[in-house]
Write a structure and sequence with these properties.
The protein is α/β, with parallel strands linked by helices and 285 residues long. Helix content is 49%, strand content 16%. The protein has a five-stranded mixed β-sheet with strand order 4-5-6-8-10, sandwiched between helices. It is globular, with a radius of gyration of 22 Å. The relative contact order is 0.11.
Length: 285
Amino acid sequence: MPFPSFHTFFVPIVHSLRARGGSATIDELEEAVASASHLSEEQRAQLHGEGPRTEFSYRLAWARTYLKKGGALDNSERGVWHLTPAGNEMSDEQIRDIKIQVQQQNREIRAALAAQAERDSGEDEEEEEIEEALTWKERLLEALLAIEPSAFERLCQRILRESGFVKVEVTGRSGDGGIDGTGVLRLNLLSFQVLFQSKRYRGSVGSSVVRDFRGAMVGRADKGLIITTGTFTADARKEATRDGAPAIDLVDGDALCDLLKTLKIGVKVETVEAVTVDQASLSAV
């Protein structure tokens, strides 16, 4: 299925952030940009290669990376993206020009680092750069897809414990509406009974999964949580927060990677120390 090039999402991303007061989560951006770009449900569910990332999510990541390099966006460690003062003032034409500006920056950096022929500009150059930015998450998701379903359930159990849950148990009984385990989340003086489902899945989780899970949890818990290595369709996200029904929290593959990185489970982050000499301060002593 033909898919829009990543740079066509530049302007919708900036407009969506402006409409939300200047900041948004990745999920909020995906919903807003998909709506503004009139993407069909089939396009949103289309996988990038063999998955688990969708093509839309993949190309939107390209767009965010370019807009950040172009000075229009920035992001926090918690995955919230926001407009910079410069980005808030940019015209649509200036936003579109970021693609050319960043490509030029990339060529200059490559020329400075290595005396070699200038690489061809275009999609190959763009994809190579974004591949570098996304590689660790894709490798992590592939590793998660390779483990046994029971091991993934135990991993989810540990994630919940590390996140402050107590009495976390994996049940995994068949015919139980997809409920894989239970836990209790304590927040100061309050506690909530939570049921969770873990889906080691390549592709998109649909709304029927959310409905079935909610049906199984009614009368048994205060909250529901679905964790997957894949993604959730737009209808699944709408179903999770449908008016008049108990809300269900959704953790997709991208958010799962960030969570594992934060908790340092299966991910090692190395910090390189940079030492510089401040000649002016030495002279002032």
